[in-house]
């Protein structure tokens, strides 16, 4: 039957109806008489069904808009309340059980079951989106007082996922099952008999015997009570403020207590957790093994003992003090937790979780300290253990001290500044998997005696390994910057393989040591595929050995992964490689590289003082000998080019007794001084060495060895016996003998230095030379320091440097043996033998001695105008009158030339006395003295130590090499001399002096003099004004005149003192110290490194190019012109020179305006001001040393 809008149906008097459909606006009433009436299979589509006393409705379906009301009265021995069973409530449908009874109801999404005023619902199933509400109570009419209070109750309700059960206003739930749904129990109502003694004031909402599981939630609050609750399978009980839970059992769930909540007699079993957030009461709680207590949000727990196998977590805002963590118990500190005076028993675990920092914790014996947050200043005792990180939950630890305990640094975690002492160990782990977190890291670790750092696939940096400490790298571990001190050890071995996504082959990560520094007594060992890059060995030991099979199966990969070291710098100590190990690009500054059997060394560079030993079975690849020694032992293998780059030695010890052999490796770049030591080829007196094209062949007559040379200009080798009886070859060039003079004249057995101009040079670096001098022809005696007479006119100068040998040779004196009148000639053969085994001879030196009975006196005619001829001996010549021409013709003559004389002294040590003006003197290489001219005289002499003392004006003096003493006259004279240590004293004005190289002294004059000197340590001290002074390189001292002087100096170390004002100085790359007196001086600098001390007004410094100038400004109005960005200048005292100006050429330092300069001024950090001249690596600067920025103004700068 279908009831439509406005229809009503009364089912009473004991009748039954079936399959009624009730539409919106229709009403069906079931019951109401004292006989039971029933309605079954009713469908309520928007209408209403009222089930009253003695009415029963079964299998009803309530759809949207439909309502089923179930009512009754509780009267003693009265009628039965309305009852419904097997009702299904769909979306929008509602069942109101008001004092009635409902059983086996199903509440679907959007459906609601309300149980009120003492109603009862039993066996209700609430599915997702459905709601069951239980509230209120009623009083039974009964002949007792107080009458019974009947409370609304839901019994054995099942609340499925996202279903809801709300118990409020004194309602009750019994034995509910919350299986993924939500249940709330809250509030209370006043008890209707509150004024009756013994009755409660309120009736609290209640739930008893509830089971919460399947991620379901039960919340109790605001005076409500739950008891006998069981939490399992991730069920949760929230006890909010005012709520009470008693007798709760937590199996695999969680109970959360908020501030003001109460939980009494709780039992927390394995996997169960109690969370206390605030000031809550959880008295009587029993924590069994595997359970957890969490406190936070203001919870203060004092004096708590965490039992064995129980975990206590202190959350944000939680406070734990005076507590004990028992053996087997765990304490977890979350971010924001506060701990104080906590005692950990042996066997306890402490966890510092993410966001929490633990400072100063001591990990005692048996304690495990897990860190997922931060730990600082931890001490780990023997038996204690610290674990950093948990997979991708990284942790950090700093300043840890491990005293016999253990620290494990896990993935994504970092340990910094750890100190590991005796018995302690630090393990740094990692894993190479796609998308896995990074490996563990440790930095600045110190490993002391008896301690160990194990890096298994992890990464460590800046470790220091002291005596007795060990750093182990395995399975792809990586270490960078390890310092190994005496007694410390690094071991690196093993590898791991990483398979990138999509790649057919894996990538091998090998245990690697980079930038290690191994000190004296330290050790670095590479084996089992371990590698090292750019290690520095400072007196320690590095070994490289072994290999492992490559695990990638990549056909392009090598079959084995060899232990290897590349870029090693060996300063002292040793490196050895063996058993398949490889070293590459080793630089040997000292120490020994030992290539043992099956070891390989490629691209080694062996510098002076270092040795590479290649033992039998060892392999030397391309090697550069840069001053050191490559020693190939018998059985060694050299299979690539050997290059010389600096004087070094290739030693070959392979025995060669007979026959010929060709050395396998090409030898490149061999230069003078390089040696090949064939210790296996016996030396004989007939041993030979020849170079033909690119082939070098050495033979002892029975056996020979041939080498192939490249990139060399060496065509000669010295040959000698080495220390073991073998042949030592030295790449060499012939020494040279130069400057020998033949036909040197002497007379009457006068002593002569026949080798005064001879120079011996030896192009072979560090070579020594010995000299054999053999006399032939006329006899004589040779004497001098270091000379050894071998008899029969043969002498020797013992081996020394070529320069020393030259000096000894210059000092030798020869005296011809007595002979009759006339001339005799002695010829000298000089044979120089270099220590490299090469000899050169020279026979160009000869001396002719002329014997004459005595001095000859020659007088010219009194009238003058004569040509006077001297003898070849020593003469005294008197010329009278004027205009005589005198020829000395040899010997040491004394000549009085008269007026206007012309004199020629071709040889000997002569003295010439002049009178008057317009004299002319020429001479040879003797030591000549000329005096007496009164002007307009020309003097031209050869090499010798000459003395000129002239007077008058307009003299022209030209001298050769020698140590000359000259007074050129009284002014306007010209003096020119070659190389030598000359002394010139000027008088008057307008003199010109031009001297060659030497240590010259020029002084005097009254001004307007011009002095030009070559290289040497010269001294110039002029008087007057307007002088022009030019010097070459050397250490020069220049004292200019009294002003308006011009000074030009070359690259030297000069001291220049200016007098007067308006001087001009040009410095060309010198290192000069310049001082002035009055001012208006101009100094131009073209490079170099100079210092100026300025006094007076209006001075100017013009600085060009990459100079370095230090200026001290004691004056006023100094102008400094800077024309390059690459100079570094300092100016002191500039802050006191208000008129001082620094003028920058436009664009220097990228400045184009004074405003640019002012904005760029910066403190130099020492009380001064710095102006940078650009930002590049070669940019210079101007440092106003003692001038603050505030003392500098725009008026002090200009752009030109």
Task: Itemize the secondary structure elements and their pairings.
Blueprint: E1 2-3, E2 8-11, E3 16-18, E4 21-23, E5 27-30, E6 37-40, E7 43-45, E8 48-51, E9 55-58, E10 61-62, E11 67-71, E12 83-85, E13 88-89, E14 94-98, E15 101-103, E16 106-107, E17 112-116, E18 120-122, E19 125-126, E20 131-135, E21 137-139, E22 149-151, E23 153-155, E24 158-159, E25 164-168, E26 172-174, E27 177-179, E28 182-186, E29 188-190, E30 202-204, E31 206-208, E32 211-213, E33 217-221, E34 225-227, E35 230-231, E36 236-239, E37 244-246, E38 249-250, E39 254-258, E40 262-264, E41 267-268, E42 273-277, E43 286-287, E44 292-296, E45 300-302, E46 305-306, E47 311-314, E48 319-325, E49 330-333, E50 338-344, E51 349-352, E52 357-359, E53 362-363, E54 368-371, E55 374-376, E56 379-381, E57 385-388, E58 396-398, E59 401-403, E60 406-409, E61 414-416, E62 419-420, E63 425-429, E64 441-443, E65 446-447, E66 452-456, E67 459-461, E68 464-465, E69 470-474, E70 478-480, E71 483-484, E72 489-492, E73 495-498, E74 507-510, E75 512-514, E76 517-519, E77 523-526, E78 531-533, E79 536-545, E80 547-549, ...
Q: What's the overall geometry?
A: elongated
What does the main sheet amount to?
51 strands, mixed
Please identify the structural class as seen in this structure: mainly beta
Mean of pLDDT: 93
Oligomer: single chain
Report how far the terminal alpha carbons are from each other. 115 Å
Q: What integer value in Å does the Rg equal?
A: 57 Å
Main location: secreted
Keywords: Secreted
InterPro entries: AIDA (IPR030930), Autotransporter_pectin_lyase_C (IPR012332), Hemolysn_Ca-bd (IPR001343), Pectin_lyase_fold/virulence (IPR011050), RTX_toxin/Mannuronan_C5-epim (IPR050557), Serralysin-like_metalloprot_C (IPR011049)
Pfam family, one: HemolysinCabind
